[in-house]
């Protein structure tokens, strides 16, 4: 069934849950036992039979799983045991925690409670595995790639927004997209810094003008998203969306949007729709398998998708008509001269496939600052700015390195960027503590498989029947969702040392400390790993480094402006009493597909008088 048809899927599921057992019960009572049920007893007995059927089915599945476990020589993944049937209390706790708790803390608390790093939450009687075990993350992404896919449920949640783009497809369609997209990230393309130069200059000009007005605070999360989107749109489809020229959020006046600030112009509506769509997808995954129940009469992403499509459709249309004109004129330009949109238009005439793939790349770009990585790049730059604001010593060291290698102006080369070792360390340390994709989901393929025994993060095991020296692998049942949590793995003290929560770029420079990572590179996966590793990784490093060089050539003082944060976006006081980073956090990190700072990151940026 097509993933967009979620209502039909839900109806068929209800038929399976209600109609099938009712039909069996009807057949038994009328043809086998031949009893006549009264008007009052019939509904009660039908209902009782449906419950009996569901319990039997669940027991049957468990028996099959046990048999598979025995065959594989594996043990069961520990299961969360809530107080209410179907672990509904755990679901309620999680939904509440997503609104008020520190990012992913609700998962960490579960792991601590059960003293293991991989658990089955089994909410509403449905297996759902969560894992912060780095070996399991490695298996899902790389060594055991063939056992997993994005799966049916993820596609269903994202279909209305991302459609058939690379992030929302598996197998043949994904391979086709990946093959088509990869040439656009060849070194010579991503080392051409002309585009970065133009949009960086425009962005820094905005910062200059704003900060010269009695050091007015600026929401850099919003600004970096615009920078990323404009640069990415030119890189991908040769057109400037020019969001940097639209209305900027104003300190103290701007409302809180779905993630950061919200402005009320056409760009604001695009950004809001873009962010809202991600929020809707995240909310669906939190509710789980039954999310369509809450969207029976209204697909919550339909209006968001419509706004975003309204921006992209004219671009796709013009690329297709340009292609037609070129074909009629018998002109064929070489691949190297085409932008990504023109290249996509070469491969298909289907405007929907082209639009969906463009949108996926925009999503990736906006948060890094590229369109597909664009989201992640903006996120990366936002958190680097956060650290520069709270650690002036880091800013000074970064700036000295920039001035030493790149001077105060002039063109910047790829080689110069490669020599900025401290800057690379700051970027990596930021990606370690705040990976723009802090959690991700996959589904196991139909046959079950095994995961290595849980790592040694917690010495005890939550399964009282199993000895701690039990080295059997864990059984990953087939067709089951698994949420893996790079943010927690990248802050795990067993992997990174007792100072894992501390921002310390030197861990990437000092031989002995770095050796932990060199011996086990998969403990750091902000760009994912394996066959689906991020295609924009080098683009993102180049773009972020380029931007930071220019920023630090012009400015040297960054300070947070908590008074400018929209109300409700500062970290709750109770976080101070907790352990880990949250006790010291000056902003509210939150996630909706990708990481962001709640309410935006409002900072003052200045150059000291020299
Ligand atoms: C700091 C910046 C970035 C980070 C942290 C990042 C992270 C990631 C991650 C974690 C994935 C895997 C998603 C998954 O499989 O579920 C991914 C995939 C991808 N990224 Fe990035 N990304 C960044 C920037 C970019 C940029 C700038 C682009 C391109 C404009 C880009 C393009 C892609 C594409 C096309 C994929 C899909 C690969 C596939 O499924 O085969 N990324 N990225």
Automatic annotation (TrEMBL):
Q: Which PANTHER family match?
A: P450, PUTATIVE (EUROFUNG)-RELATED
Question: According to its UniProt record, which protein family does this protein belong to?
Answer: Belongs to the cytochrome P450 family.
Q: Output one GO MF annotation.
A: monooxygenase activity
What is the protein name for this chain?
Answer: Cytochrome P450 monooxygenase CYP63
Q: Gene3D superfamilies given for it?
A: Cytochrome P450
PROSITE patterns attached here?
Answer: CYTOCHROME_P450
Q: InterPro entries attached here?
A: Cyt_P450 (IPR001128), Cyt_P450_CS (IPR017972), Cyt_P450_E_CYP52_fungi (IPR047146), Cyt_P450_E_grp-I (IPR002401), Cyt_P450_sf (IPR036396)
- Asked if the Swiss-Prot or TrEMBL record annotates the protein with the keyword Transmembrane helix, the reply is yes
Name its co-factor(s).
Answer: heme
Instruction: Tell me the superkingdom of the source.
Output: Eukaryota
Q: Which organism is it from?
A: Lentinula lateritia
Which Pfam family, just one, is annotated for this protein? Answer: p450
TM region(s), chain numbering? 35-56
Q: Keywords in alphabetical order, please.
A: Heme, Iron, Membrane, Metal-binding, Monooxygenase, Oxidoreductase, Transmembrane, Transmembrane helix
């Amino acid at each position: 069934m097509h993933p967009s048809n979620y209502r039909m899927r839900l109806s068929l599921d209800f038929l399976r849950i209600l109609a099938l057992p009712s039909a069996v019960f009807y057949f038994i009572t009328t043809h086998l036992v031949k009893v006549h049920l009264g008007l009052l007893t019939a509904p009660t007995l039908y209902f009782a039979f449906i419950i009996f059927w569901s319990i039997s089915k669940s027991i049957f599945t468990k028996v099959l799983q046990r048999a598979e476990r025995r065959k594989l020589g594996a043990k069961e993944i520990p299961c969360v045991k809530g107080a209410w049937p179907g672990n509904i209390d755990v679901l309620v706790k999680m939904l509440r925690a997503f609104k008020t708790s520190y990012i992913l803390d609700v998962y960490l608390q579960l792991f601590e409670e059960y003293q293991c790093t991989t658990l089955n939450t089994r909410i509403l009687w449905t297996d759902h595995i969560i894992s912060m075990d780095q070996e399991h993350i490695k298996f899902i992404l790389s060594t055991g790639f063939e056992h997993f896919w994005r799966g049916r449920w993820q596609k269903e949640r994202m279909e209305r927004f991302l459609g058939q783009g690379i992030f929302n497809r598996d197998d043949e369609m994904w391979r086709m997209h990946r093959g088509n997209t990869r040439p656009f990230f060849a070194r010579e393309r991503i080392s051409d810094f002309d585009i970065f130069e133009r949009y960086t200059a425009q962005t820094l000009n905005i910062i200059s003008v704003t900060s010269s007005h009695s050091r007015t605070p600026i929401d850099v999360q919003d600004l970096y998203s615009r920078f990323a989107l404009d640069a990415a749109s030119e890189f991908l489809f040769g057109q400037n969306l020019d969001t940097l020229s639209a209305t900027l959020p104003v300190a103290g006046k701007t409302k809180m949007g779905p993630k950061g600030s919200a402005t009320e112009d056409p760009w604001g509506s695009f950004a809001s729709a873009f962010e809202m769509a991600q929020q809707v997808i995240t909310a669906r995954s939190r509710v789980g398998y039954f999310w369509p129940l809450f969207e029976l009469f209204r697909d919550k992403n339909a209006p968001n998708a419509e706004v975003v499509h309204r921006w992209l459709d004219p671009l796709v249309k013009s690329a297709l008509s340009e292609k037609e004109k070129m074909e009629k004129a018998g002109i064929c330009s070489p691949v190297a001269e085409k932008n990504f949109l023109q290249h996509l238009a070469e491969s298909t005439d289907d405007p929907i496939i082209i639009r969906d793939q463009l949108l996926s790349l925009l999503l990736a770009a906006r948060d890094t600052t590229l369109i597909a990585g664009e989201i992640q790049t903006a996120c990366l730059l936002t958190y680097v700015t956060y650290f520069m604001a709270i650690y002036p010593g880091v800013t000074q060291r970064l700036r000295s390195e920039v001035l030493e290698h790149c001077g105060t102006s002039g063109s910047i080369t790829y080689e110069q960027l490669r020599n900025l070792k401290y800057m690379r360390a700051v970027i990596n340390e930021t990606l370690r503590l705040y990976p723009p994709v802090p959690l991700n989901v996959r589904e196991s393929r139909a046959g079950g498989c095994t995961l290595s025994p849980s790592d040694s993060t917690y010495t005890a095991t939550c399964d009282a029947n199993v000895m701690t020296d039990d080295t059997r692998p864990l059984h990953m049942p087939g067709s089951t969702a698994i949420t893996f949590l790079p943010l927690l793995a990248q802050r795990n003290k067993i992997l990174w040392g007792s100072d894992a929560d501390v921002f310390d770029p030197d861990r990437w420079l000092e031989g002995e400390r770095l050796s932990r990572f060199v011996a086990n590179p998969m403990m750091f996966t902000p760009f994912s790993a394996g066959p689906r590793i991020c295609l924009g990784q080098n683009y993102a490093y180049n773009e972020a480094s380029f931007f930071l060089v220019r920023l630090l050539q012009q400015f040297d003082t960054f300070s947070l402006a908590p008074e400018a944060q929209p109300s409700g976006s500062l970290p709750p006081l109770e976080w101070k009493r907790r352990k880990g980073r949250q006790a010291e956090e000056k902003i509210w990190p939150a996630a909706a597909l990708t990481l962001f700072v709640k309410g935006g990151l409002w900072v003052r940026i200045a150059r000291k008088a020299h």
